[in-house]
UniProtKB/TrEMBL annotation:
Name this polypeptide is given: beta-glucosidase
EC number assigned by the record: 3.2.1.21
Keyword Coiled coil: no
InterPro entries tied to this protein: GH, GH_1_N_CS, Glyco_hydro_1, Glyco_hydro_1_AS
Length: 532
């Protein structure tokens, strides 16, 4: 029998974003500050010196964003809630901000009105500054676990009647290692005194990771005990992890790849998240970390083990691994994309850590499925085209390298499902929009939609068209077909109120609206006419 080339019936796909990367409006409607507000405003912390104060202005342009999602015909949208919009100071005894609840409530209703399933991340790195000031945020074990569980409960109460897909925490590795080890992400703590006045990179990342596991597990406990019986949703954590290949066939590098994998799932040395899935910390971790290694009490283990309904996977690339180096955060393995013969593993992205290698994606899916035996939700996967910021918009939207990346990953996804029998439930390319790429500021673009930050106009890239078409062709035959929507060539937001319109100094003259030929297309036509 021929292997089917369609997705399973309940498969969901859509695009992903995170609150701090898109919302802007950091002072609106009672929002409290988050650790990324302060960090991104501090000179030297982002590559272009820019903060998240405007981002893609999605707090103001949320209806336009949803209209764009609807035009793409997505089934689902993965977005995150800003904790400090909902509880401005963050703590369990601090007031809840009804305006924050109202904003996300309207947002969810609008998604549902368009037939788009909300897929909600509770925490995507924007900790309320109030909690950082009060007890050092994720380092304050007892407090943060209780405050996070309370915040989660507020969200289940407010939105759980309509939200059936919850992610507790996005990529804890980044909070722990990048935020408290290397010091390049908020709150920027590190032993490196050139970077940070406070911090201990040898202990804090491990404590933060440990506390995140506990906070996640307690939120899941609240959900399962108090909400799941009536709300009937799914809840889990989402981890970053990339595939690892040996640099060459020497035994030590074959071992290194295995070590990197052992270390790197969740991109965490020593599989730090095995407690969640398997109920133990690998002994090797204790061996290496000695008395720096935190542990759970018996009561805590009971809450932690089995605390994810699924495996949430964010994955971008594959690393060639060589034994050696002294980077403990990488498990003392060196990563490269250059093969021994000097050739590259794949196409280089704008950011140094990413090359295109779709076979690694398929292998990782198989590895995770065999190891954890839980359904996999792919919650992020994407590519930043090199130099996309430095070229005119009309060239940037022809994002061939990103299309190539998604051609590979969509095929790998389908093969993993249909040939290999891996239970995969979702695929969310990162990202709906170019956006605030953390320490890179706005210099790195991951969007399938180009954002002109001067005007906040959104221009669908060719990769968006590729993905929309691919999913149309590969959805299960029994999934109700949507009326064919026309993807707009661009969307200039209605120049309504506030700082958006006042700061917009548009290089594109006439506001082009959906259904009209956009300025870009006119420019392209003019260039073509000129060439001919
Ligand atoms: C993820 N690395 O972050 C995040 O979940 C997104 O918010 C982000 O925009 C996206 O991937 C693209 O970077 C990562 O250094 C940040 O390997 C850094 C790394 C990996 C993922």
């Amino acid at each position: 029998m021929a292997v089917p080339n369609k997705l399973p019936k309940d498969f969901i796909w859509g695009f992903a974003t995170a609150a701090f990367q898109i919302e802007g409006s950091t002072n609106a409607d009672g929002r409290g500050p988050s650790i990324w507000d302060e960090f991104s405003r501090t000179p030297g912390k982002t590559l272009d010196g820019k903060s998240g104060d405007y981002a893609t202005e999605s707090y103001k342009l949320w209806k336009e964003d949803i209209a764009l999602l609807a035009a793409y015909g997505v089934r689902s949208y993965r977005f995150s809630l800003s904790w400090s919009r909902i509880i401005p100071l963050g703590g369990r005894n601090d007031p809840v901000n009804l305006k924050g609840i109202e904003f996300y409530s309207k947002f969810i209703d609008e998604l549902l009105a368009h037939g788009i399933t909300p897929f909600v991340t509770l925490y995507h790195w924007d900790l309320p500054q109030g909690l950082q000031d009060r007890y050092n945020g994720w380092l304050g074990k007892d407090e943060i676990v209780k405050d996070y569980a309370n915040y989660a409960k507020v969200c289940f109460e407010a939105f759980g009647d309509r939200v059936k897909h919850w992610l507790t925490i996005n990529e804890p590795w980044c909070c722990a290692i990048l935020g408290h080890g290397r010091g390049v992400f908020a709150p920027g703590r590190s032993s490196d005194r050139n970077r940070s006045a406070e911090g201990d990179s040898s202990t804090e990342p491990w404590l933060v990771g440990h506390h995140i596991i506990l906070a996640h597990a307690h939120a899941v406990k609240v959900y399962r005990e108090e909400f799941k019986p009536t709300q009937k949703g799914q809840i889990g954590i989402t981890l970053n992890g990339d595939w690892a290949l040996p640099y060459d066939n020497t035994p030590e590098n074959i071992d290194a790849a295995q070590h990197a994998l052992d270390f790197a799932i969740g991109d965490y040395p020593f599989k730090l998240f095995d407690p969640v899935y398997l109920g133990f910390y690998p002994p090797y971790m204790r061996e290496v970390l000695g008395n720096r290694m935190p542990d759970f009490t018996e009561d805590e283990w009971r809450v932690v083990k089995g605390s994810s309904d699924f495996y949430g996977m964010n994955t971008y690339t594959t690393n060639l691994c060589r034994a050696g180096g002294d980077d403990e955060f990488q498990g003392n393995v060196e990563y490269t994309f250059t093969r021994p013969d000097g050739s590259q593993l794949g196409t280089q992205a704008h950011c140094a850590w990413l090359q295109d290698y779709p076979d690694g994606f398929r292998q990782l899916l198989n590895y995770i499925w065999k190891r954890y035996k839980l359904p996999i939700y792919v919650t992020e996967n994407g590519f930043a085209v090199k130099g996309e910021t430095d070229i005119p918009i009309e060239e940037a939207v022809k994002d061939f390298d990103r299309i190539h990346y998604f051609q590979g990953t969509t095929k790998a996804l389908l093969d993993a499902i249909n040939h290999d029998g891996v239970d995969i439930r979702s695929y969310f390319p990162w990202s709906l929009l170019d956006n605030f790429e953390w320490a890179d500021g706005y210099t790195t673009r991951f969007g399938v939609t180009y954002v002109d930050y001067e005007t906040q106009t959104r221009y669908p890239k060719d990769s968006a068209r590729f993905l929309v078409k691919w999913f149309n062709e590969h959805e299960h035959p029994e999934v109700a077909k949507r009326p064919k929507a026309k993807i707009p060539t661009s969307s200039l937001h209605l120049s309504s109120n506030g700082s958006v319109s006042s700061k917009a100094s548009s290089p594109t003259p006439a506001p082009s609206r959906w259904g009209f030929r956009s300025t870009v297309m006119k420019v392209v036509a003019a260039i073509l006419a000129f060439i001919r």
